[in-house]
Each structure stands twice: as C-alpha cells, then as structure tokens.
Design a protein that fits this description.
This protein has a single domain, classed as Beta-Lactamase. The protein contains five helices and five strands. Strands 2-1-5-4-3 form a five-stranded antiparallel β-sheet. A hairpin with a 5-residue loop joins strand 3 and strand 4. The relative contact order is 0.17.
C-alpha cells in the first residue's frame, strides 16, 4: 500500500474517505479504473458497476469536449476544470463540475477527476 508522508495517513484511506467524489480515469480505454465511495454514490452505481461502465455512457452529451480536455491533460500535464453533465445509473443527468489532474504512475498515465454537484447552484 502506498502511504503519504505520515504513516497514519495512507493514500488509499484519504482517497476512500474523501467526501468529494474522486475518480481515476483511463481516457484512451474509455474507463474509470478506480472510484471512491462518494463517487459511486453520486452516480448511483456500485463500485463494480461503475468500473465496468464506459466513460462514454456517463458523459454521452459532452464526450467530444471531455475527450479534448483529456487529450490536453495527458499531453502537457495541465490541470483543467470543466462543467458537464453526468448520466447517473437511473438515467438522470446531473450538472457537475469536473476538475482534472494528470496522474503519472511511471508505467501509465491516468487522469484524476474530482467531481462536484452543481445542481444546487443552478438558477
């Protein structure tokens, strides 16, 4: 298990206990490779269901825009924030804001996505 600077704060625990939805995304393969409990709840999936669901099923309306942001993040390591809608398991579209960060494991490049529900900010 990877750990942070303090043994009592392992990275896995911080990821899982975050109150914000967090996803580790593999854009070229159109998949989410990891999601925390908050991320699963927001999209109404179990973890297993979410990891088996293509990103293109969750973001069908904005997939070209999202793919452009993924490409830029993977190409230059830039961090981006994008407003888009996520389709939940029940089919409801949820307005969200997605902050994207590059994650280089040394073997693979992934994108970390931090998702925020924007529905209460709509007016």
């Amino acid at each position: 298990m990877r750990q942070g600077p303090h043994d009592e704060l392992p990275i896995d625990r911080l990821f899982e206990e975050s109150s914000d939805p967090v996803y580790i995304i593999d854009p070229p393969r159109d998949r989410i490779v990891e999601a925390n409990a908050a991320g699963c709840r927001m999209l109404e999936y179990t973890r297993e269901e979410l990891l088996a669901t293509p990103i293109s099923d969750i973001h069908p309306a904005e997939l070209p825009q999202l793919q452009t942001f993924f490409d830029v993040a993977l190409a230059d390591g830039a961090n981006w924030t994008i407003a888009l809608s996520c389709r939940t398991k029940s089919g409801k579209f949820l307005p969200t804001e997605l902050a994207l960060y590059l994650l280089d494991t040394g073997k693979e490049l992934y994108v970390v996505g931090l998702l925020r529900d924007r529905s209460e900010h709509r007016g």
